[in-house]
């Protein structure tokens, strides 16, 4: 359980997650495994302190953002913790972002430094920004001696920032504090996963996502355990190879990844999950049939739990040995929950309402966005934007979003963004995008279009798929496009998307 009072006022997260291990005499324990590279806590601590020293020597001041465009790797880990150690704010960015989104995010967070992997292309320079390739970062670290110590930071000072496009579709920088990762480690990782020193974590979700950051960095580091980092694309075959080779004990996936792995297993792909003691799923609801089929194949339970970038990690989860397939389980110790109606009144069990959450790991604010901060994070309770009901036994069941946002492959899809892309086509008069469940029970975007009078219809579908390929990330592509006569609307002209879903 979380007792935030246990934390001293002066607290540096990088000191807690790396240096503490060395000071406790556990520095020679393995922290990271990545392909053939293995790093102990002592080595990672040294690398992080060198990054801190190099950043300091190059002019980093407390609170400056350091953005990272690096695949999951020891270099990303060192850059992240080095920044936090120096008192800066680490901003790990997903390397697969479309260029437009990447530019918007870099413009918004205005990092003082940007560390990038040159094999993925050179990001654009900007006034006041220092670009370091990973190679340059290492060279500067090697030239910096002695390694810096850990900045004397407050537990409530900013440590890292994660971009999420939930609720509005526009990416927002979610600001987290030094204490937040500690809180999630003591609540979810200790109390639900029972994480221990001999665990080895493997996460299909990458470090720049809140889910991956906990799974593959601060959870194992809290326990002195180790993480397997995989910089490649997590296809089922690649994941099976990593699991066979590195034998993780905790496996973190998302529902689509489990569905794809099951399909590959059924096609005879070689796999061995005998090292894994627990599987976790988050990002979107895990359909019960996937839970059942996975348990039949591997003998392992998948713990579904809901987390958010705002709360930093999972706050509602199933427990080992007490899973209720299809549900999100029960509150993680340390978090409080309410289900309310439109007027904010608490609803009785069995009724669907808006889920509000309270907990010590909640983000302090959205960067540069006081309106969203006020609306979502401003009150005593955080608005998750999710609809839930609680059954007689106290289990929580996800009942969709209260906005139109879709969760596809554990990521956000704004129907409006997909609609505006399809509307670029001159034959499209109107368009509505909704989430439709596929054969696994997972939501995928599908489009309904109304064709302009007299416009050509031949080849339209192929044209629209081409537009999607040109302008949208792959998971946002409409899986099906249907031509309809009209789109159902309310009296005020708002699209009634739920009618189309049926
Ligand atoms: C949805 C789920 C049903 C839900 C996340 C840390 O996904 C994470 O963060 P995001 O900010 O999205 C949050 C939203 O995603 N969701 C996530 N998990 C579930 N819905 N069942 C679930 N198990 O709408 C939520 O508001 O990107 C962050 C740790 C774990 C995470 N999943």
Structure explained in plain terms:
The protein contains 14 helices and 25 strands. The chain has 502 residues and is of the alpha/beta class. The strands form 6 sheets. It has a 9-stranded mixed sheet, with helices on both faces. The mean pLDDT is 95.
List the SSEs and their pairings.
Blueprint: H1 13-23, E1 30-34, E2 37-40, H2 41-57, E3 65-69, H3 74-85, E4 89-92, H4 99-109, E5 113-116, E6 130-133, H5 134-143, E7 158-164, E8 172-177, H6 178-192, E9 200-203, H7 210-223, E10 226-228, H8 236-246, E11 250-253, H9 255-266, E12 278-281, H10 288-298, E13 302-307, E14 314-317, E15 330-331, E16 336-340, E17 353-358, E18 365-366, H11 370-377, E19 382-390, E20 396-401, E21 406-408, E22 411-413, H12 415-422, E23 428-437, E24 443-451, H13 460-471, E25 480-483, H14 497-501
Parallel strand pairs: 1-10, 3-4, 3-5, 5-6, 9-10, 9-11, 11-12, 12-13, 24-25
Antiparallel strand pairs: 1-2, 7-8, 8-18, 13-14, 14-15, 16-17, 17-19, 19-20, 21-22, 23-24
Helix pairs in contact: 1-2, 1-3, 2-3, 2-5, 6-7, 9-10
The structure holds 5'-O-[(S)-[(2-aminobenzoyl)oxy](hydroxy)phosphoryl]adenosine.
């Amino acid at each position: 359980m979380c007792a935030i009072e246990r934390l001293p006022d002066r607290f540096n997260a990088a000191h807690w997650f790396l240096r503490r291990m060395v000071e406790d005499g556990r520095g020679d324990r393995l922290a990271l495994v990545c392909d053939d590279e293995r790093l102990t806590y002592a080595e990672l601590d040294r690398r992080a302190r060198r990054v801190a020293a190099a950043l300091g020597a190059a002019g980093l001041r407390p609170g400056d953002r350091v953005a990272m465009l690096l695949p999951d790797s020891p270099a990303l880990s060192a850059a992240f913790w080095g920044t936090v150690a120096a008192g800066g704010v680490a901003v790990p960015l997903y390397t697969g972002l479309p260029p437009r989104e990447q530019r918007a995010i870099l413009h918004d967070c205005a990092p003082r430094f940007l560390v990038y992997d040159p094999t993925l292309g050179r990001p654009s320079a900007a006034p006041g920004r220092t670009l370091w390739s990973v190679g340059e970062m290492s060279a500067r670290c090697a030239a910096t001696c002695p390694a810096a110590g850990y900045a004397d930071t407050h537990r409530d000072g900013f440590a890292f920032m994660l971009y999420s496009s939930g609720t509005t579709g526009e990416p927002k920088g979610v600001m987290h504090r030094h204490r937040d990762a500690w809180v999630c480690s003591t609540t979810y990782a200790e109390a639900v996963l029972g994480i221990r020193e001999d665990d080895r974590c493997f996460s299909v979700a990458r470090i720049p996502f809140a889910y991956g950051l906990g799974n593959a960095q601060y959870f194992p580091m809290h326990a002195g355990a180790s993480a397997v980092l995989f910089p490649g694309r997590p296809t089922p075959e690649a994941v099976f190879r990593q699991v066979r080779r590195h034998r993780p004990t905790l496996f973190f996936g998302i529902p689509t990844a489990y569905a794809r792995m099951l399909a590959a297993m059924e096609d005879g792909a070689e796999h061995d999950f005998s090292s894994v003691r627990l599987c976790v799923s988050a990002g979107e609801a895990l359909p019960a049939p996937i839970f059942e089929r996975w348990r039949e194949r591997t003998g392992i339970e998948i713990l579904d739990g809901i987390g958010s970038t705002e709360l930093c990690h999972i706050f509602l989860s199933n427990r080992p040995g007490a899973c209720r397939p299809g549900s999100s389980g029960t509150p993680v110790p340390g978090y409080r929950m309410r289900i309310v109606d439109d007027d904010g009144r608490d609803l009785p069990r069995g009724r669907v309402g808006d889920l509000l959450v309270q907990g010590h790991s909640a983000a302090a604010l959205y960067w540069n966005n006081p309106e969203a901060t006020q609306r979502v994070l401003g009150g005593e309770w955080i608005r998750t934007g999710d609809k839930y009901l609680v059954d007689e036994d106290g289990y929580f069941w996800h009942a969709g979003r209260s906005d139109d946002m879709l969760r596809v492959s554990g990521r956000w899809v704004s129907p409006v963004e997909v609609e505006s892309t399809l509307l670029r086509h001159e034959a499209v008069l109107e368009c509505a995008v909704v989430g439709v469940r596929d054969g696994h029970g997972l939501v995928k975007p599908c489009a309904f279009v109304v064709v302009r009078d007299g416009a050509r219809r031949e080849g339209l579908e192929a044209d629209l798929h081409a537009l999607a390929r040109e302008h949208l990330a792959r998971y946002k592509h409409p899986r099906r496009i249907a031509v309809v006569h009209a789109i159902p609307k309310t009296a005020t002209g708002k699209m009634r998307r739920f009618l189309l879903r049926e």
